[in-house]
Every structure is written in structure tokens, then in C-alpha cells.
Design goal:
The complex is a heterodimer of chains A (305) and B (242). Chain A is mainly β. Chain A is built from three helices and 19 strands. Chain A is globular and about 55 Å long. The mean pLDDT of chain A is 95. In chain B, the strands form two sheets. A six-stranded mixed beta sheet of chain B has the order 6-7-8-3-9-10, sandwiched between helices. In chain B, strands 2-1-4-5 form a four-stranded antiparallel beta sheet, covered by helices on one side. Classes of the chains: A mainly beta (305), B alpha/beta (242). At the A-B interface, helix 2 and helix 3 of A face helix 2 and helix 3 of B. The structure holds adenosine-5'-triphosphate and magnesium ion. Residues 39-40, 82, 156 of chain B line the site of magnesium ion.
């Protein structure tokens, strides 16, 4: 791995070296390093366009890192990664994709992640998307995440796209069985003429299921974001969504809440707010000695934390 | 130390402050007066949060009238808000770190927080969002001003909304600030016990300085019921048990 790739790896997966536990590092379309453990088995898909990851029943306190790096200008790929998590597991999965494009050709990563989470299993999922590069070639990223939660299973998702992606279409779809729960923190920062579209669709199918979707967006420059959060309550369930956005410069954000209840015992709440940074927040930080720009930066940093 | 020359503030067709002239050198000066008399406006003008319609502000001889809030902060002026500002995502330790100007330092943060009766362990990692109660916010606001230190610390009703968790602790914060920074403190308060320990009191009424004198003198006048409005002043009327 060269220095650039190492740096990207740090950016998207906070890794300084090869991680412990299971991992698969994909670089410019090929698996660069892979490790399976006694409980976590990583296999290439027969079609060659991704991996299947199997977690044995009862796998606890183990992690699986699957970062993707694209540093070759013009590389485009569509990757399918399927996760089969057994019952009674407690695992951490860290995904992420970094595109560094210094060339003149567009680079693109479309990743489709599907999670089958077994009964009473707990999964923490972290996904970070990041782009950089001074070339004229654009960086596109279109992640799709599909989550099937069995009875009593929980998924805690932390997804973010903090910089440098020209255009993204992020789709998250989840269906929840009885007593299952989904917590999702999604963060997007766009700048310049970047565009981002996010669609989060949750179906609360089992009694006692719940979701808490917290989406935070910051649109700077002339960037545009379009966020749809769509929750269907088909059972005695609790669904909560909070879509909170800051616009700066000439940024545009469209937030569309959609709630649908097909069961009288479903309770669904959606809160949405869009506005610029509160002037009093900037002033408060200025009384602590920060300049107006530093204050704005701090506020955004906290907001997207 | 601080001199206000002909400070006026006009907004919404109202004269909120009218030709204020003050020379402040005493270490501990309290500002009091009825609701709406212009106390917060005056303090915000000193911090640079509000730009006066006319007039001049001198700080240690330097004309600071045109300086931005952060420039005044960097000269050593700090401000604790009457209504502390909430942030999504920023934590108590982040703001204390910015205030102290030296990043997060748990030992020091612990000192600042315990001085206002909060346990660092419980609060350093709390977000300064609307899950903090009003009183907790006020205490953190005071801790931040203490962390900032500096030559002139401005407090806008620091005791408001705080239970009598021990008023003594609050007083101690001020005394400490005074000792450590050897700086000046200006504090808006309706609390008799704070007014009593001030060196001088500024009594604002309808946007003008009605009285500016030694604390003891003004207090004895207040207790005689000369000033029958506000809070500490209405003691005689039995409206306040302060
Ligand atoms: N920007 C503004 N536009 C219009 N009116 C204002 C503005 N700022 C302050 N005022 C008015 O000026 C008066 C003084 O306000 P200020 O907040 O300084 O009062 P205060 O003495 O601090 O009162 P309190 O004891 O209630 O805190 C009030 O009547 C207030 O409504
Ligand atoms: Mg006030």
C-alpha cells in the first residue's frame, strides 16, 4: 500500500495499520488484504463483484473492517457486500470508501450492502465516505444499505459523508421484526456545486419495533441536498425521525418527511428544521475569542459530530 | 479601566440607553435597576455584541468602540449571558477548552465546574443542548467565564435560575476570579447579597444612570424604599424576600 492509500485508509476507517479481527481491504477494484477469523468468514462472491461475510451465532466483541479505496482516476465500480449475522451476536462492522482523484476522469463507487441480522443480535455499523483530489475528474458515490432485522435484533448505524464527493445518491432501507430496533445517525456536508440525495426508508413491521433516525446536513457554497425520511408503522411500534439542517452561502436543502401508519398502535414522529447558524451561537463563541469564521467552523464541527 | 462616553442606543423608535457616561475603576461593580431599564443592553455594548447608536468606549485607555466581539475578548473582556446559548453537538468540555484557550484540560475543567457545584465526571461530555436544565446552563456559563479569566468579566444575572445551591459558592467564584486574574468584574444583579458585596452600584432606570455610588450608600437608600420597583428594592413592599 502506498502513502496515499494509507492516508485514505486513515480517513475512512481510522486505521493506521491492518486492523485486528476480520477485514477486507479493497483498493482500485481488487482485494488488497483479507483476513477471516474463527467466527467471521469473508468470501468473494462467485460473480467476483464483492464479498459475503458470515458471522457465526454467538460471535461477540469482534469487528470486521471493509474499507474501499479508489486512487486511480477513472475507476468505476459497483460492489455488492452481503453480511449474514447469526443469532445472539454483538459485532462492529466498519465500512467506508475514500476516493482520491487527481486525474481528469470521473471515479465512482457504488456499494450495495445488505445486512441479514439474526435474532437478538447487535450490530454497530460505521460508514464514512470521503473524497479528495485536485484533478478535474469527479468523484461519485452511491451507497445503498439494506438492513433486515430479525426479532430482537438491533442495529446502530453511523453514516457520514463529510467532504469531497461531487454527487451522491444514498439509499438506506430497513425492515424490522418484532422488538427490533434501528438507530441511525446520518451526516452529510456538501460544498461548492456538490449534490447529495438521501433516501431513508424504514418499515416497522414487528410489534415492539422502533427506530430513531437522526439526519444532520450542512449545505455550503451552492450545494444542494435532498433528504427523504420515510417511516412506515405497520405494527405496535415507535418511529422517530429528526432531520436537522444548516444552510450557508447559497446552499439549498430540501427535507421531506413521510410517515405512514397502517396500525392504530403505531406511533410515529418526524421533526425537521432548516436554518442558518444561529447568530447568537456565533456571538457566544466570539466572546470566547474565536473569529466569526472559526466560530462557524466549530459550530458545524459539533453539529456534524 | 473602563470609560463610557455619551453612549446612547436607539432601536424601534425607542431610546433604550440615553447618553450614558461612566468611569469605572472599582474591582467589583454591580448594575441593577428595574426590568427593561437597559442593563443587558449596556453590558452587551461593552462586549461589542450591540453597537451603540452613538458614543465611545475606552478600555484601559484604548478606544474599543469599533472592535469586534472577539477582538474585545482577546483584550481580556468576557461575558456570561443572561440566557446562555445552546449548541447541538458541542460539549461542555469543548466550550471550556475554547474558553480557557488551551484545549481540553480535565484537571482544570474539573476545577471550574466544581466551583459552580457541578461534577466534571457528569458534565464534561454532556452536549450543551436543550437536555441541560436552565440552572445547569447558567452554572456552565459562569464556569466558562471563570475559565476565560481576563481583565474584565461581565456577568448578566448569573444568580438567576440558580437554586440557593449555596449562594456562597457563587460569591466564591467571583472572589476567586478577582484574586486569580486581579481583573475587574461587572455584574448585573437583582440580588441584595450580591449588591452588598459590590464596591459600587450602578442603578439604571429608563435608560439613564440614576445613581452611581458606593454600594453601602445605595443599599441604605434602597432599603429605605426610595426605589420602589425592581426586586431587591421592593423589599419594603414585601414583594421580595431576597
Ligand atoms: N433590539 C431591540 N429592539 C427593540 N427594543 C429593544 C431592543 N433591545 C432591547 N430592547 C428593549 O430595551 C429595553 C431594555 O432591555 P434590556 O434587555 O437591556 O433590559 P434589562 O434592564 O436587562 O431588563 P431585565 O432586568 O428584564 O433583564 C427593553 O424594554 C427591551 O424590550
Ligand atoms: Mg437583562
Amino acid at each position: 500500500m502506498d502513502d496515499l492509500e494509507k492516508r485514505m485508509l486513515k480517513e475512512v476507517a481510522e486505521l493506521d495499520s491492518l486492523p485486528v479481527g476480520a477485514f477486507n481491504i479493497r483498493s482500485n477494484g481488487a482485494s488488497e488484504a483479507r483476513n477471516s477469523t474463527a467466527n467471521i468468514q469473508i468470501e468473494s462472491r462467485e460473480s467476483g463483484d464483492g464479498i459475503n461475510v458470515y458471522f457465526k451465532d454467538g460471535t461477540k466483541n469482534e469487528s470486521c473492517h471493509i474499507p474501499v479505496i479508489i486512487s486511480k482516476s477513472g475507476h468505476k465500480e459497483c460492489v455488492y457486500n452481503d453480511f449474514f449475522v447469526g443469532e445472539n451476536c454483538d459485532v462492529v462492522i466498519v465500512a467506508g470508501c475514500g476516493i482520491s482523484n487527481c486525474g481528469g476522469h470521473d471515479s465512482q463507487h457504488d456499494g450495495i450492502h445488505t445486512f441479514h441480522i439474526g435474532k437478538n443480535s447487535k450490530v454497530k455499523y460505521v460508514e464514512k465516505h470521503y473524497g479528495e483530489g485536485t484533478g478535474t475528474g469527479k468523484k461519485f458515490m452511491n451507497p445503498t444499505t439494506v438492513v433486515h432485522l430479525s426479532e430482537g435484533a438491533t442495529m446502530d448505524m453511523d453514516t457520514s459523508q463529510i467532504a469531497g464527493i461531487n454527487d451522491t445518491y444514498r439509499i438506506t432501507k430497513a425492515d424490522l421484526g418484532p422488538g427490533a430496533s434501528l438507530v441511525m445517525h446520518d451526516k452529510i456536508l456538501t460544498n461548492f456545486d456538490q449534490t447529495a440525495k438521501a433516501e431513508i426508508v424504514v418499515e416497522l413491521n414487528g410489534d415492539g419495533s422502533s427506530c430513531d433516525i437522526i439526519s444532520r446536513g450542512v449545505a455550503k457554497g451552492e450545494s444542494q441536498q435532498d433528504v427523504v425520511i420515510d417511516i412506515a408503522g405497520n405494527s405496535a411500534c415507535h418511529g422517530h425521525a429528526e432531520c436537522d439542517s444548516i444552510i450557508m452561502d447559497k446552499g439549498v436543502i430540501v427535507a421531506t418527511p413521510k410517515l405512514k401508519a397502517t396500525c392504530v398502535d403505531a406511533s410515529l414522529i418526524h421533526e425537521a428544521a432548516i436554518g442558518k447558524i444561529a447568530g447568537e451561537q456565533i456571538i457566544k463563541l466570539m466572546t470566547l475569542g474565536l473569529s466569526e469564521q472559526e466560530a462557524e467552523q466549530k459550530i458545524i464541527e459539533g453539529f456534524l459530530r | 479601566m473602563l470609560e463610557l462616553q455619551n453612549i446612547s442606543f436607539h432601536a424601534d423608535d425607542k431610546d433604550i440607553l440615553k447618553d450614558i457616561n461612566l468611569k469605572i475603576d472599582d474591582k467589583f461593580v454591580a448594575i441593577t435597576g428595574p426590568n427593561g431599564s437597559g442593563k443587558s443592553t449596556l453590558l452587551k455594548i461593552i462586549m461589542g455584541i450591540i453597537t451603540p447608536t452613538s458614543g465611545k468606549i475606552l478600555f484601559d485607555g484604548q478606544d474599543i468602540t469599533d472592535l469586534a466581539v472577539n477582538e474585545r475578548a482577546n483584550l481580556g473582556i468576557s461575558f456570561a449571558f443572561q440566557q446562555p446559548v445552546r449548541f447541538k453537538g458541542l460539549k461542555v468540555k469543548d466550550l471550556l477548552g475554547i474558553a480557557a484557550g488551551e484545549g481540553v484540560d480535565v484537571t482544570k475543567d474539573c476545577k471550574y465546574l466544581s466551583a459552580v457545584g457541578l461534577c466534571a465526571k457528569d458534565y464534561l461530555n454532556r452536549e450543551i443542548n436543550d437536555t441541560l436544565s436552565g440552572g445547569e446552563m447558567k452554572r456552565i456559563e459562569i464556569a466558562m467565564a471563570a475559565a476565560r479569566g481576563g481583565k474584565l468579566s461581565l456577568f448578566d444575572e448569573p444568580e438567576a435560575g440558580i437554586d440557593l445551591w449555596s449562594f456562597q459558592s457563587l460569591i466564591k467564584v467571583f472572589e476567586n476570579l478577582r484574586r486569580v486574574t486581579n481583573g475587574n468584574i461587572m455584574i448585573i444583579s437583582h440580588q441584595e447579597r450580591i449588591l452588598e458585596i459590590a464596591d459600587k452600584i450602578i442603578y439604571l432606570k429608563d435608560g439613564v444612570v440614576d445613581r452611581y455610588d458606593e454600594s453601602a450608600k445605595i443599599m441604605s437608600d434602597l432599603n429605605m424604599g426610595r426605589y420602589g420597583c425592581g426586586c431587591a428594592y421592593s423589599r419594603k413592599e414585601g414583594a421580595c424576600n431576597g
